[in-house]
Amino acid sequence: MSILLLAGSPSLSSRSTRLLHHVGERLATLGHRYSKLHVLDLPAQALLQADFNNADIKLAQQQVRDAEAVVISTPVYKAAYSGVLKAFLDLLPQDGLAGKLVLPLATGGSQSHMLALDYALRPVLSALGAKHVLPSIYATEAQIVWDAEKGLAIESGIAQRVTEGVEHLSANLHTLRRASVSSSTEFTPVPFAQVRCSV
Ligand SMILES: Cc1cc2nc3c(=O)[nH]c(=O)nc-3n(C[C@H](O)[C@H](O)[C@H](O)COP(=O)(O)O)c2cc1C
């Protein structure tokens, strides 16, 4: 059981995906394991034709199923999230995110659509049964700068949101695990009629 990093950008040099990987590295420093899934690596025809039986799509669905938590990143496109991310989410079962924690991330050209995750993506995540959708992290292009030599530069306000998001996800994951352990080890009352005395 681990965390899935789901990248929703169709771009090969994606800012939102770099932010996602940064969040993954931060979670790893807190001892969490993660795996990655990029929608742009999935077969385009299967996504467009909503081919639930495609082998690669089935593998991706399994990755989602196996995750306790999903960190989803997307660019803002036309005041919403990317169409290719929606094409993949459409291929998840109705309760595909049931019981899972979700941390949404997005990058956009300006602050104008900073609520796109809350009014466009969050309802879809809830419809897929997400147990707890954590506060979203939104950054503009100016706040997340990639340099091949220096790496990713994150503006301090966003860096603080990332720290809060990572700690929030980590704490909730520990709570979720404790709850699942205690419910699995909880005493199940045995009806008196079934009590057998071994004398
Ligand atoms: C097709 C397209 C539509 C876009 N629409 C918006 C938009 O509505 N609002 C916005 O703030 N930025 C918009 N942008 C800018 C992207 O959200 C921004 O460049 C983002 O950082 C790209 O993320 P990526 O590098 O992870 O793909 C758009 C970019 C493209 C290519």
Mean pLDDT: 92
What is the total domain count?
Answer: 1
User: From the alpha-carbon coordinates, what is the Rg to the nearest angstrom?
Assistant: 19 Å
Shape: globular
Number of helices: 6
Q: Can you tell me the CATH topology?
A: Rossmann fold
What fraction of residues sit in β-strands? 15-25%
Please bin the fraction of helical residues.
40-55%
Characterize the main sheet.
7 strands, mixed
Q: Which structural class should the secondary elements be placed in? A: alpha/beta
Poorly predicted runs of 5 or more residues:
none
By CATH's scheme, which homologous superfamily applies? Flavodoxin domain
End-to-end CA span: 43 Å
N to C succession of SSEs: EHEHHEEHEHEEEEH
Bound molecules: flavin mononucleotide
CATH domain class name: Alpha Beta
Reported CATH architecture? 3-Layer(aba) Sandwich
Number of strands: 9
Topology (elements, then pairings):
Elements: E1 2-7, H1 15-29, E2 34-38, H2 44-48, H3 55-66, E3 67-77, E4 80-81, H4 83-89, E5 101-108, H5 116-127, E6 132-133, E7 137-140, E8 144-147, E9 151-154, H6 156-185
Parallel strand pairs: 1-2, 1-3, 3-5, 5-6, 5-7
Antiparallel strand pairs: 3-4, 8-9
The chain binds flavin mononucleotide.
